[in-house]
Design brief:
single chain; about 290 residues; 2 domains
Length: about 290
């Protein structure tokens, strides 16, 4: 007849299980302690996309990462990625405990639901802390994003000015007019007409995902890429650039005021935004 587990033994078993879960979580994230996990880099948007289309691309226990991309804490907790991670950690802890318990004569191990709760409680505590950091960082991130867009605008203006002067010195009238148009376009778009970027990962390499702007005519993405290619060796402060990867993700932002209609994507165009003659000329400039 199986021996009945006393309340004291059950409490002791939960404590041992809790210690085991903490150690598995710590090792999975390669962290010195659970307190530091909330500060680690979250899973990338590309990895999450692959996971949504192919569940086999889900979290592993060798290089574990959390999904903190939700709009609020409840959404972050219920993230399919985080739930899959909780499940895998719980099954790993359950397996280790079962093997340790086998033939040892100790008390009965915890039930599956108890392992799930133990792991979930600890992961949710980490996510709560990470979300708190994220809210604090959002203001700094917004400032950084605006600073990056300002830098892009200033740099493109500088490149266009230098190139235009070179064309003038060399008697290249067509080049002079072309770079004059580019300088005009960058200035008209202003800071809010420059693209945003996000940290991402591609095949293990840290990259910058360059987002698209919903209001901006798509040809400008190609045009500005050409401008940027004039000098891509150094980033802000002389640091080396991470490789830029253009992605289809669109930033929904209102276009700058008084922007010519021809600069806008079809969904944002309005006949009242531009003088027809000006629109015709800009169409010709973009086609060159």
């Amino acid at each position: 007849m199986p021996r009945t587990t006393t309340p004291g033994e059950k409490h002791s078993a939960k404590k041992v299980a809790g210690d085991l879960v903490r150690e598995i979580i710590r090792k999975s994230f390669a962290a010195t302690s659970l307190e530091h996990i909330s500060e680690l880099e979250p899973v990338s948007a590309n990895t999450l996309h692959r996971f949504r289309t192919c569940p086999e691309e889900g979290p592993t226990l060798s290089h574990a990462k959390l999904d903190t991309s939700g709009k609020n804490l409840s959404e972050i907790k219920q993230s399919p990625w985080n739930q899959a991670l909780i499940y895998r950690i719980a099954r790993q802890a359950e397996s280790v405990a079962r093997n340790t318990h086998s033939g040892s004569g100790s008390t009965e191990p915890l039930q599956q639901s108890e392992w799930d709760k133990l792991v979930a409680d600890k992961i949710y505590r980490i996510l709560r802390k990470a979300h708190s950091h994220k809210r604090t960082d959002d203001t700094s991130l917004a400032k950084h994003s605006r600073s990056l867009r300002d830098w892009k605008m200033t740099r493109r203006q500088a490149i266009a000015t230098i190139e235009q002067q070179d064309c003038k010195d060399n008697g290249d009238i067509e080049g002079y007019e072309c770079w004059g148009f580019i300088l005009y376009a960058v200035t008209v778009f202003g800071i809010d007409g420059m693209s945003d970027e996000e940290d991402d990962e591609e095949n293990g390499e840290k990259v910058k995902s360059v987002l698209d702007l919903g209001f901006r005519r798509p040809e400008f993405r190609t045009l500005f890429r050409s401008v940027d290619s004039r000098d891509v060796a150094k980033g802000q402060g002389g640091r080396k650039f991470r490789r830029r990867v253009e992605v289809s993700k669109i930033v929904e932002r209102q276009p700058p005021r008084n922007i010519p209609c021809v600069f806008l994507s079809p969904g944002f165009q309005s006949s009242s935004n531009a003088v027809p003659q000006e629109a015709i000329q800009l169409e010709a400039d973009l086609a060159r």
